[in-house]
C-alpha cells in the first residue's frame, strides 16, 4: 500500500514539476561547467600568446680568448638570430637583434679580452636591439651557433671571432653594409609627422633629448644616466610650452630609442622648425671641479674654448658609439643664397642663446662664460635656428643633485619657457593668448 502510494506520489503533478526543476538545474550545471572549461582553454591559449610575445631575456654575457681567437657568449632564455655586420675606422662588430631585455650589469662583465676592446648594448630602434663591439684589430666571424638549454644550463648564443687582415675586414664591411642599412630602415620607418604640412601658423619648436637607446650619454658620479634625465626634462618643458597654446611642440624622441645625429637634424628641417633645442647633461674629462652650471652652445667652425671643443668631439661621437656608418660631411656651401640663409640662421641662434642666458641668470647657476660655441653636428641645419643646452654636468656631484631635483627642474623649465616666449614675442604680438611684455 505504501509502495503504491509512493508511486502515485511520484506520478503526481507536483512530483513531475520537481523533476523538471531538477533536470533544468542539472542542465544549468552542465552549461556552467562547459563555460568554465571553455574559459580555461581560452585563458590558457591567451596566456601562451602572452608568454610568446614577451621579449627574449639575455641574462649574462662574457668574452674569452686571445688576440688570435676570441669567443663572445650570451646566455638567454629564447633563441634569437643576430644580423652581423662590421664597421671600420674604428673597427667595430655590429650585432642586430630583435628587441631583447638585457638583464645584467655591463659593469660586472669583463669585456676587455682578446680581440674585444669594449662593448655596449641597448635599444637601437623600435623593436630592435643592438650590441656594438669595439675591436682591437680587424676580424672575421669564424662561426655563430645557438646552443639550446640542457639540464640547468641556459641557452647560449656563441660568436667566434678570428683575427683577419685589413683587406678581409674591408670586404666584411662592404659585404654586410646592406644588412645593417636594412635593419635600421625596417625598424624605424618615418612617421607621418616627418612629411606633414603645418596645420597652422604657430611657431614650430623641436626639442631634442640627447642620446637614447644604445647611446647612454654621460653617466653621473652617482649613476644618473644622461639619456634618461634629459628625456624627462624635455617632456616637462614640452608640457609647459603646450599649456600656453602658442606653439607646436615636437620631440625627436619620446622614449628610450636611439636617433642618429643626421636624423635629428633632418627632423627639424622636415618640420620646418622655427627653433631647435638639443638638451644634454654631459660629463667632461678636463676640469671636473670647474665645469658646473648651465651652458648654451651655438654652432661655429672653430670652438670658443677647450671645454666646447671637448664636448663637441664627445657629442659628435654618438653615431660611432651606436654603430652607425658616418656619412661624409657636405662640402662647403657655394650657393650664395644657401650661404646667406646659414648666416641668418646662426644670427637667430645666437640671439636665442643670449635671451636664454638672460632668463637663466635669475633662476639657476651658470657656468663662467655661459654662451660658448663649437662644431656640433646636431646644430648644422642651415635653415633652423639651433642651440645645444647643457642643463649641467653629470661629472659634477653638485650638478647631478640638481638635475635629479624636481624643484630645480621646474625652475629651469620655467626659465627656458620664458626665454622662448621672449624669442617669439615679436611674431606672436597681437595673437589671442600672446605673451605680454
From TrEMBL:
InterPro entries: AMIN_dom, MurNAc-LAA_cat, N-acetylmuramoyl_amidase_3
CDD domains, A to Z: MurNAc-LAA (cd02696)
Keywords associated with the record: Hydrolase, Membrane, Transmembrane, Transmembrane helix
Catalytic activity: Hydrolyzes the link between N-acetylmuramoyl residues and L-amino acid residues in certain cell-wall glycopeptides
First-tier enzyme category under EC: hydrolase
Transmembrane segments: 21-46
Domain of life: Bacteria
GO cellular component, one term: outer membrane-bounded periplasmic space
BP GO annotations: peptidoglycan catabolic process
Signal sequence coordinates: none
The EC number(s) this enzyme carries: 3.5.1.28
Alphabetized Pfam families for the sequence: Amidase_3 (PF01520), AMIN (PF11741)
One function term, GO molecular function aspect: N-acetylmuramoyl-L-alanine amidase activity
Segments forming domain MurNAc-LAA: 265-421
Protein name in the entry: N-acetylmuramoyl-L-alanine amidase
Amino acid at each position: 500500500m505504501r509502495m503504491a502510494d509512493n508511486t502515485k506520489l511520484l506520478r503526481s503533478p507536483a512530483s513531475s514539476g520537481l523533476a523538471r526543476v531538477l533536470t533544468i538545474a542539472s542542465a544549468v550545471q552542465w552549461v556552467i561547467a562547459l563555460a568554465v572549461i571553455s574559459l580555461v582553454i581560452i585563458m590558457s591559449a591567451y596566456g601562451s600568446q602572452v608568454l610568446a610575445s614577451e621579449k627574449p631575456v639575455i641574462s649574462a654575457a662574457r668574452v674569452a680568448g686571445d688576440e688570435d681567437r676570441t669567443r663572445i657568449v650570451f646566455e638567454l632564455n629564447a633563441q634569437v638570430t643576430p644580423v652581423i655586420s662590421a664597421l671600420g675606422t674604428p673597427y667595430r662588430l655590429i650585432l642586430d637583434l630583435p628587441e631583447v631585455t638585457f638583464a645584467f650589469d655591463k659593469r660586472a662583465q669583463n669585456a676587455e679580452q682578446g680581440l674585444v676592446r669594449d662593448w655596449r648594448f641597448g635599444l637601437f630602434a623600435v623593436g630592435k636591439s643592438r650590441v656594438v663591439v669595439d675591436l682591437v684589430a680587424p676580424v672575421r666571424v669564424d662561426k655563430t651557433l645557438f646552443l639550446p638549454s640542457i639540464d640547468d644550463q641556459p641557452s647560449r648564443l656563441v660568436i667566434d671571432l678570428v683575427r683577419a687582415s685589413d683587406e678581409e675586414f674591408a670586404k666584411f664591411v662592404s659585404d654586410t653594409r646592406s644588412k645593417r642599412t636594412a635593419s635600421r630602415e625596417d625598424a624605424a620607418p618615418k612617421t607621418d609627422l616627418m612629411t606633414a604640412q603645418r596645420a597652422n601658423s604657430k611657431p614650430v619648436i623641436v626639442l631634442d633629448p640627447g642620446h637614447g637607446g644604445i647611446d647612454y650619454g654621460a653617466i653621473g658620479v652617482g649613476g644618473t644616466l644622461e639619456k634618461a634625465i634629459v628625456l624627462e626634462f624635455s617632456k616637462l618643458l614640452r608640457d609647459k610650452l603646450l599649456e600656453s597654446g602658442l606653439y607646436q611642440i615636437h620631440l625627436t624622441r619620446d622614449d628610450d630609442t636611439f636617433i642618429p645625429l643626421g636624423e635629428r637634424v633632418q627632423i627639424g628641417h622636415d618640420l620646418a622648425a622655427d627653433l631647435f633645442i638639443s638638451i644634454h647633461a654631459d660629463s667632461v674629462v678636463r676640469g671636473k671641479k670647474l665645469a658646473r652650471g648651465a651652458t648654451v652652445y651655438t654652432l661655429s667652425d672653430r670652438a670658443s674654448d677647450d671645454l666646447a671643443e671637448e664636448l663637441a668631439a664627445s657629442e659628435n661621437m654618438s653615431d660611432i658609439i651606436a654603430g652607425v656608418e658616418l656619412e661624409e660631411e657636405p662640402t662647403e656651401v657655394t650657393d650664395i643664397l644657401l650661404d646667406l640663409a646659414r648666416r641668418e640662421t646662426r644670427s637667430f641662434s645666437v640671439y636665442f642663446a643670449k635671451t636664454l642666458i638672460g632668463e637663466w641668470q635669475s633662476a639657476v647657476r651658470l657656468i663662467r662664460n655661459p654662451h660658448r660655441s663649437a662644431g656640433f653636428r646636431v646644430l648644422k641645419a642651415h635653415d633652423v635656428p639651433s642651440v645645444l643646452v647643457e642643463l649641467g654636468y653629470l661629472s659634477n656631484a653638485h650638478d647631478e643633485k640638481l638635475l635629479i631635483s624636481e624643484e630645480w627642474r621646474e625652475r629651469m623649465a620655467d626659465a627656458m619657457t620664458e626665454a622662448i616666449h621672449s624669442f617669439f614675442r615679436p611674431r606672436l604680438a597681437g595673437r589671442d593668448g600672446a605673451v605680454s611684455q
